[in-house]
Write a structure and sequence with these properties.
With 208 residues, this protein is an all-alpha fold. The chain folds into two domains: 1-50, Arc Repressor Mutant, subunit A (Orthogonal Bundle); 52-204, Orthogonal Bundle (Tetracycline Repressor, domain 2), CATH 1.10.357. Helix content is 78%, strand content 0%. It has helices at residues 7-25, 32-39, 43-49, 53-73, 76-80, 86-106, 108-125, 132-157, 165-186, 189-204. Helix 1 crosses helix 2, helix 4 packs parallel to helix 8 and helix 9 (165-186) packs antiparallel against helix 10.
Length: 208
């Protein structure tokens, strides 16, 4: 990796290397030395960018969440064509869920990795309580991401949520977690579509 890269560019490169390794061997099997080797840098560079493996894993789960958010935000058409009112809100929410789903369906290994990072943090947290922060940071960041998308939908359709967005986003994330995990088990993409329809209906029931 070029020495001319900025710290943020180095961090992004190392995170991507860590994701690639974790997809192949699981989170628990990845070491900072492995990441350094995969990224083609010295171990010192890894520790310069990340205090330890836990800090790297925390940024890894954020990167996976950002990918999902960008899969929704980068499609300008869905936002530019939005009308106003609850019917328009349901259409927009469903469209956003569909864009998110397309990214999920195209990256099953990365989706499995999100569950592995959670399990890793919970298991390791029994002996090292600080590690539980990885899972908590993961869910807090995802809650915020879902809330941002839902508020974007609300603003675009000139509607209002009747349930606090923090509660709504937590519920949405819980449902999406279940849908994705079930899909990883049975690989039934066709069955996912009506589940997303139902979720969109349930979300819009909390709007006016």
């Amino acid at each position: 990796m070029s020495s001319r890269l900025s710290v943020e560019e180095r961090r992004a490169h190392l995170i991507e290397a860590a994701i690639g390794l974790a997809e192949k061997k699981g989170v628990a099997g990845v070491t900072t030395r492995d990441v350094a080797q995969a990224a083609g840098v010295s171990l010192g560079v890894v520790h310069y960018c990340f205090e330890n493996k836990d800090a790297l894993m925390t940024e890894l789960v954020k990167a996976l969440s950002i990918e999902l958010r960008e899969s929704v935000d980068t499609d300008d058409a869905i936002w530019n064509q939005a009308e106003t009112g609850k019917e328009a809100l349901q259409k927009l929410v469903r469209g956003a869920l569909e864009l998110m789903w397309r990214n999920i369906e195209a990256t099953p290994e990365r989706q499995l990795l999100t569950y592995e990072t959670t399990t890793y943090a919970l298991r390791e947290g029994e002996s090292t309580p600080a590690k539980i922060a990885i899972a908590r940071e993961q869910y807090a960041f995802n809650d915020s991401t879902v809330a941002d998308v839902m508020d974007h939908c609300r603003e675009a359709t000139d509607t209002q949520w009747t349930t606090p967005i923090a509660e709504l986003s937590r519920f949405i994330l819980n449902v999406i977690d279940g849908i994705v995990l079930r899909w990883l088990v049975d690989n039934d993409s066709e069955a996912v579509q009506p589940q997303l329809d139902l979720l969109a209906e349930m979300i819009v029931a909390h709007a006016r």
